[in-house]
Structure formats: structure tokens, C-alpha cells
């Protein structure tokens, strides 16, 4: 005769094994799709700004139209702070009560932290490539309010405002839409396009550090 306690324990372990890995409420397979969406948006944000200011449209040093650094930024931002509507420090909520005042404070704090994250991130990444690879990937010295060659107040506020708007008003609908595709379809996309984007990103990083110059696959200027 089967031991009821043992059967219950086995069933509990089986259910735990079936439980998907999540990132603060989102199945990791869906979240990786979200990272790919951010990577795609990053490619177009950079190119649209370059088309407007420099009349250049190029590969941004990668073969695919995805800049995975933006996907990594989404992961870091969401894991660390969530969204402006549910501001937290990792898994600890910043405000215990939800009022108009705390909601307004959450949005303001989120925006300014995002801006600080962008400014420090751009300086850190830019200086790392310059120091260890000997390459200058971008240069903001011709932009008023620039701080070092890698960031400026103007670009930080513009990018920070865009990221804030996405996380406040588009992130949840985007993830809800992605979740409708089903785990099987998400797994296929992750294991095909997702892996290709990650490999493309690391090829760029390795090539840049190995040769001292970033790969340039194609460029259109006018």
C-alpha cells in the first residue's frame, strides 16, 4: 500500500519541477522575448538619432538589427526597480501604502534613477571600451551639456524619458501580449533568434577587444 505522505511529497516535488522559472512574475521565456523587443527598439533609437543628427544609418557594429545591450538594460532595470507603478528595491517595495503622493513620488524617483543609471552606464561602458580596447564607440562632445565624451544631460534626459515612458505605459501591455504567444512559441523564438542575437552581441564585443576597432558591416550616409 502506498504511503500517503510519500505520495503527497512526490506530487509536491513534481509540481515544483513543473513550475517555470520567473523574473518577478514573468516567465523567463517571455521575459527574454521582451529583452529582444528592447534590443530591436535600441537599434532603431540609435539609428534614428544618427539619421537626424549625422545623416548616417548603419549596422551599429552588429549583423542583426538588435542591440542586446538594451535587452540587458531592461533586465537590470526591471530586476532592480520594477516599474514606476510598483517601485521596489529588488524584492522590497519602496512605499508600503499606495496614495497619490506615493505614486507621484514613485514615478519621480524612477525617472531620476533611470537617468542616473543611463548617465553612469554610458560613461562606464564608453570608458571601458576606450581603456581596454582602445576604441571610441561614440562621442557626444559636439552636444551641449556633454559630460565626458560619452554622455550629456540632454541625451540622458531624452533617453531616460523614453525608458520611463516605456516602463510606465508600454511594458505591462507588451508583456501581456508576449505571454499570449504560449511557452512553446516563446521557446522556439528564444532558441533561434534569441541565441543568434546573443552570439552577434558577443562577436561584436570579442572582435572589438581583440582588434581595437568595432566591426562595421554596412553603412548608408547622405
* Rg from Cα: 21 Å
Order of helices and strands: HEEHEHEEHEEHHE
> Got a strand count?
8
Low-pLDDT runs:
none
Question: Please, what is the average pLDDT?
Answer: 93
Q: What distance lies between the first and last C-alpha atoms, to the nearest angstrom?
A: 81 Å
| Strand content range | 5-15%
> What percent of residues adopt helix (DSSP H or I)?
55-70%
SSE arrangement:
Elements (H helix, E strand, L loop, with lengths): L3 H15 L3 E2 L2 E2 H27 L1 E3 L9 H14 L6 E2 L2 E2 L6 H34 L12 E2 L3 E2 H27 L3 H29 L7 E3 L1
Antiparallel strand pairs: 1-2, 3-8, 4-5, 6-7
Helix pairs in contact: 2-3, 2-5, 2-6, 4-5
Output the keywords.
single chain; about 10% strand; two-stranded antiparallel sheet; about 220 residues; globular; 6 helices; mainly alpha
What do these coordinates show?
- The mean pLDDT is 93.
- The protein has 222 residues and is mostly helical.
- A two-stranded antiparallel ribbon has the order 1-2. It has a two-stranded antiparallel sheet with strand order 3-8. It has a two-stranded antiparallel sheet with strand order 4-5.
- Helix content is 66%, strand content 8%.
What would you say about this model in short?
Helix content is 66%, strand content 8%.
Amino acid at each position: 500500500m502506498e504511503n500517503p505522505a510519500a505520495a503527497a511529497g512526490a506530487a509536491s516535488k513534481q509540481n515544483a519541477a513543473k513550475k517555470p522559472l520567473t523574473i518577478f512574475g514573468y516567465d523567463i521565456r517571455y521575459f527574454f522575448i521582451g529583452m529582444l523587443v528592447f534590443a530591436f527598439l535600441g537599434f532603431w533609437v540609435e539609428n534614428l538619432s544618427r539619421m537626424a543628427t549625422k545623416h548616417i544609418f548603419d549596422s551599429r557594429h552588429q549583423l542583426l538589427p538588435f542591440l542586446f545591450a538594451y535587452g540587458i538594460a531592461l533586465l537590470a532595470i526591471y530586476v532592480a526597480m520594477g516599474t514606476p507603478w510598483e517601485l521596489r528595491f529588488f524584492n522590497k517595495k519602496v512605499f508600503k501604502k499606495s496614495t497619490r503622493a506615493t505614486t507621484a513620488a514613485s514615478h519621480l524617483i524612477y525617472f531620476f534613477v533611470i537617468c542616473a543609471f543611463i548617465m553612469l552606464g554610458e560613461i562606464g561602458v564608453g570608458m571601458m571600451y576606450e581603456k581596454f580596447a582602445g576604441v571610441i564607440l561614440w562621442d557626444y562632445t559636439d552636444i551641449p551639456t556633454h559630460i565626458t565624451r560619452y554622455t550629456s544631460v540632454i541625451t540622458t534626459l531624452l533617453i531616460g524619458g523614453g525608458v520611463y515612458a516605456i516602463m510606465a505605459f508600454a511594458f505591462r501591455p507588451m508583456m501581456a501580449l508576449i505571454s499570449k504567444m504560449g511557452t512553446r512559441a516563446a521557446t522556439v523564438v528564444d532558441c533561434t533568434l534569441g541565441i543568434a542575437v546573443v552570439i552577434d552581441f558577443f562577436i561584436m564585443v570579442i572582435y572589438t577587444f581583440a582588434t581595437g576597432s568595432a566591426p562595421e558591416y554596412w553603412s548608408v550616409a547622405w
